[in-house]
């Protein structure tokens, strides 16, 4: 079975919610390959007692952009990003860029626990034959300039 790669990101006020949700669903998460921004990844590793989480840079230090680059390269199947709707973030352009690139490359994105639950329990999570269609941007890359 192809192992799905999941990127996990949460802003400070949402970190406990994300870590608790992942812990509550540990059985579903254990076969998945996990990537996370720096602080989110550290907290997840401590709580889940997993030392195989791929911890990237902290979001404001470039971690969001690292995940965005992985999405563009087709290396991430699902983005779970509990962003904070109540607090401005210093790296807002990076957050927008990450959400944009996820929309562009047609990967599923969960921004809250309710959506994350729907996705995690979807039959597609364990269906090898299904993967979202990767968009064809040849009309753009081949355009006449
Ligand atoms: O800021 C973030 C996402 O925008 C998350 O980064 P950390 O997990 O390092 O706190």
From TrEMBL:
<dbReference type="GO" id="GO:0008929">
    <property type="term" value="F:methylglyoxal synthase activity"/>
</dbReference>
<feature type="binding site">
    <location>
        <position position="91"/>
    </location>
    <ligand>
        <name>substrate</name>
    </ligand>
</feature>
<feature type="binding site">
    <location>
        <begin position="58"/>
        <end position="59"/>
    </location>
    <ligand>
        <name>substrate</name>
    </ligand>
</feature>
<feature type="binding site">
    <location>
        <position position="15"/>
    </location>
    <ligand>
        <name>substrate</name>
    </ligand>
</feature>
<keyword id="KW-0456">Lyase</keyword>
<dbReference type="InterPro" id="IPR011607">
    <property type="entry name" value="MGS-like_dom"/>
</dbReference>
<feature type="binding site">
    <location>
        <begin position="37"/>
        <end position="40"/>
    </location>
    <ligand>
        <name>substrate</name>
    </ligand>
</feature>
<dbReference type="InterPro" id="IPR036914">
    <property type="entry name" value="MGS-like_dom_sf"/>
</dbReference>
<comment type="function">
    <text>Catalyzes the formation of methylglyoxal from dihydroxyacetone phosphate.</text>
</comment>
<dbReference type="Pfam" id="PF02142">
    <property type="entry name" value="MGS"/>
</dbReference>
<dbReference type="InterPro" id="IPR018148">
    <property type="entry name" value="Methylglyoxal_synth_AS"/>
</dbReference>
<feature type="active site" description="Proton donor/acceptor">
    <location>
        <position position="64"/>
    </location>
</feature>
<comment type="similarity">
    <text>Belongs to the methylglyoxal synthase family.</text>
</comment>
<protein>
    <recommendedName>
        <fullName>Methylglyoxal synthase</fullName>
        <ecNumber>4.2.3.3</ecNumber>
    </recommendedName>
</protein>
<feature type="binding site">
    <location>
        <position position="11"/>
    </location>
    <ligand>
        <name>substrate</name>
    </ligand>
</feature>
<feature type="domain" description="MGS-like">
    <location>
        <begin position="1"/>
        <end position="145"/>
    </location>
</feature>
<dbReference type="InterPro" id="IPR004363">
    <property type="entry name" value="Methylgl_synth"/>
</dbReference>
């Amino acid at each position: 079975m192809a192992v799905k790669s999941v990127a996990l990101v949460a802003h400070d006020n949402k970190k406990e919610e994300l870590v608790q949700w992942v812990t509550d669903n540990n059985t579903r998460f254990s076969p998945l390959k996990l990537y996370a921004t720096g602080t989110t990844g550290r907290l997840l590793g401590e709580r889940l007692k997993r030392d195989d989480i791929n911890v990237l840079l902290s979001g404001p230090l470039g971690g969001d952009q690292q995940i965005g680059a992985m999405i563009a390269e087709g290396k991430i199947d699902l983005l779970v990003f509990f962003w904070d709707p109540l607090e401005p973030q210093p790296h807002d352009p990076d957050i927008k860029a990450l959400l944009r690139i996820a929309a562009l490359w047609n990967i599923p994105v969960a921004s809250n626990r309710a959506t994350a639950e729907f996705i995690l329990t979807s039959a597609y999570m364990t269906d090898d034959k299904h993967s979202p269609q990767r968009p064809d941007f040849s009309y753009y890359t081949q355009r006449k300039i």
